[in-house]
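Quiz preparation item.
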């Protein structure tokens, strides 16, 4: 019983305080006084958040030695405590003041190829009319950190800093955000302000052009008829009686007049070239990371050739399907790929192709040197009948060449530059 009364009393008291504060704030001049007392408190709390671990150690040591020196009348401790607290307060002073900056992060290009030059620039402008103190600019670039000193800027002045971004390997590099940092030389207090968003730099894999005459497996298959019968196509097959639902545009009027029965045309379905590029990114299928990089570049080269020849294209890996409606979309997807794991490989990809890409005309499996001929033979046996099978096998220690395993034509390359020549050899 007493507990419930206490709770009720507490709620009533809190409500009364809130009401009293609201009433006081309506009195002229009181609201302004409340705001003036609240502002310094908020500034002090914000400033305390800028203090680092070393700063708190210095402050605690200063207060402790100050107290002990005063308590035991120990002059040395007292002087040391005053000195440490003074250092801490001085460090706080370094962070005070506005940072009236307008900061812009510029990339020379959002997409480059491995080895190409990529530049970034940071432009900082003082938006105020008075001089601002020097600061430091920090910006993450991938796993690295770029830092440079920002000099004091006069009103309206600006400073630009340029730097190169390493593009030695395929990657998606996060550039930014740009932060301005003020702090003391000892690193006790650090005040950072973020000015920009993160920009992504795509370092695309290298690719090579595969001339249509060189990549014989990519020759256009359109116009090749199949044994499937369709009500609408180009290759005429036969006539049959009209059935409800048939397209009247295919009625053969001359035969209808001769037989007295509505007759419609039937056609043999012609095959449109549909290329499937299956890339294994299972780490166990490759001897090292260099083989995987060559395989990704080979898959990109094959996909780009298919897009250039306006073929239907499906690109998948041992772990997912990649969007490939345009050159940029395909290369962006390949750039994000990483080595995977699990019981997936060329045989699993062949099952996926047979299940999900029923109308494929050419399946290209790209893998590494640890994939055995037995695996390639099994993958070829899984593919649907009528699908031409090609395997691009990357082996850093093997000579470029062509072989046949079951129904699969195997093209072996050690370097990307060998791909076009070896594909041309496969069609001789």
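Solution:
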């Amino acid at each position: 019983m007493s507990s419930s009364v206490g709770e009720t009393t507490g709620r009533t008291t809190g409500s009364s305080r809130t009401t009293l504060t609201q009433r006081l704030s309506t009195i002229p001049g009181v609201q302004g006084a409340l705001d003036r007392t609240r502002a310094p408190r908020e500034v002090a709390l914000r400033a305390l958040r800028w203090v680092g671990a070393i700063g708190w150690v210095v402050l605690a040591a200063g207060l402790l030695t100050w107290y002990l020196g005063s308590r035991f009348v120990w002059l040395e401790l007292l002087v040391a405590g005053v000195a440490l607290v003074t250092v801490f307060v001085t460090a706080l002073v370094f962070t005070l003041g506005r940072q009236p900056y307008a900061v812009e992060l510029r990339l020379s290009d959002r997409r480059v190829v491995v080895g190409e030059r990529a530049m970034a620039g940071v432009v900082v402008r003082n938006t105020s009319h008075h001089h601002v103190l020097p600061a430091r600019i920090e910006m993450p670039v991938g796993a690295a950190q770029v830092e440079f000193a920002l000099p004091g800027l006069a009103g309206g002045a600006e400073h630009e800093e340029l730097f190169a971004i390493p593009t030695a390997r395929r990657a998606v590099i996060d550039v930014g955000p740009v932060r301005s940092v003020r702090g003391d030389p000892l690193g006790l207090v650090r005040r950072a302000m973020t000015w920009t968003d993160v920009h992504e730099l795509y370092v695309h894999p290298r690719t090579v052009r595969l001339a249509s005459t060189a990549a014989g497996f990519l020759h256009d298959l359109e116009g090749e008829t199949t044994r499937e019968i369709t009500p609408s196509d180009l290759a005429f097959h036969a006539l049959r009686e009209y059935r409800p639902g048939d397209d009247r545009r295919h009625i053969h009027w001359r035969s209808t007049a001769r037989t007295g029965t509505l007759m419609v045309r039937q056609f043999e379905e012609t095959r449109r070239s549909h290329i499937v590029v299956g890339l294994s990114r299972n780490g166990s299928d490759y001897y090292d990371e260099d083989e995987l990089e060559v395989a990704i570049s080979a898959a990109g080269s094959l996909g780009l050739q298919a897009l250039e020849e306006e073929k239907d294209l499906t690109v998948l890996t041992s772990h997912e399907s990649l969007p490939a409606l345009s050159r940029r979309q395909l290369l962006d997807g390949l750039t994000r790929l990483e080595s995977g794991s699990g019981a997936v490989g060329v045989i699993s990809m062949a099952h996926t192709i047979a299940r999900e890409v029923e109308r494929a005309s050419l399946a290209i499996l790209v893998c590494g040197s640890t994939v055995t001929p037995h695996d390639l033979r099994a993958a070829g046996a899984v593919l649907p009948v009528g699908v031409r099978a090609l395997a691009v096998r990357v082996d850093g220690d093997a000579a470029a060449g062509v072989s046949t395993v079951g129904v699969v034509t195997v093209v072996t390359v050690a370097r990307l530059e060998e791909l076009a020549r070896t594909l041309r050899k496969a069609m001789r």
